[in-house]
Known about the structure:
The protein is an alpha+beta fold and 121 residues long. The chain is 26% helix and 25% strand.
Amino acid sequence: MKMILAMIRIAKMAETKIALSDVGLPSFTAMPVLGRGKGNGDLEKAESKIPELKEFISEMPRLKSKRMITLVVTDDKKDLAIETIIKANQTGKSGDGRIFVIPAMDSVRVRTGETGDITLD
Length: 121
């Protein structure tokens, strides 16, 4: 069992939701998050147009609004989930997102008390 955390662009949320549902993975949680990668893509573009911009860097927002989606899948569906998220979100530009895969020890369906992979269906 794997937990997949994906940080994606807000504008790609609907496309991601449809893509996951189309491959049989409709269950996930999404939440708004703020974050950044190591690059300064937008800042570098702006500086090339306005060289004096550097003195205002501290006033610029440093965190970008993103969506974090979380889904837990059986081991055999891990690659499908990752490929689907990549396909729905890849533009080839900085800021496409990041996917983290974490081992999930167990899952419990609160309503019935069932545990294990059966709770993921």
